[in-house]
Amino acid sequence: MSEYTTKINQAKLDAVESIKERFSQSKNFIFADYRGLRVDQITELRNQLREREAEFKVVKNRHAKIAFAQLELPDVSEYLVGPTALTFVGEDSAAAAKVLFEYGKDSAVAVKGAIIDGRVFDASQTEAISRLPSMDELIAKLMGTMNAPLTHLMYAMNGVASKLVRTLQAVAEKKQAEGK
């Protein structure tokens, strides 16, 4: 009897290496079912995500599972079932998740889960993350909060000077009316 050997397909190895390279460039991923989307809808979604520094890419589930395992990322094989698209997220995971959930209201996109900062989130947890303010909104709120005391101090100091000027003006007008 002959021994069974598996042939290694170089094209598949290259595909896994390509996926691993792309995975290593991003630390946050959102998994979505894209079944039922037309090409123009996928293009529109990709454009919206690109504005949020994210990339929507369809990958082979088996290749993605191998790449995740080789990179020692968390096991997400439960999300890599059926037609799956991966969203490679830059810095702001909340903004990319928000785009996917907003787009999913009017189309067939269904978020399955996510890996954010090395932690696995299911669909409901990912939706909760999508409701968080974006990084830009948080920075704007922080800057407004930091700026508020100085703004109030400026108005208070300006108010004292304005009151003094109005009082002096009133005294000058009163003396002028009295003829002095």
Question: Can you lay out the helices and strands and say which pair or pack?
Answer:
Blueprint: H1 10-24, E1 28-33, H2 39-51, E2 54-58, H3 61-70, E3 85-89, H4 93-106, E4 110-116, E5 119-122, H5 123-130, H6 135-178
Antiparallel strand pairs: 1-3, 1-4, 2-3, 4-5
Helix pairs in contact: 1-3, 4-5
CATH topology of the largest domain: Alpha-Beta Plaits
What's the alpha carbon Rg, rounded to whole Å?
A: 29 Å
- The CATH homologous superfamily name of the largest domain equals Ribosomal protein L10, N-terminal RNA-binding domain
Q: Span between N and C termini?
A: 127 Å
Percentage of residues in helical conformation: 55-70%
Number of helices: 6
The overall strand count is: 5
Task: List the domain count as a whole number.
Answer: 2
CATH architecture of the largest domain: 2-Layer Sandwich
Q: Order of helices and strands, N to C?
A: HEHEHEHEEHH
Quote the average pLDDT: 88
Q: Give, in spatial order, the strands making up the sheet with the most strands.
A: 2-3-1-4-5
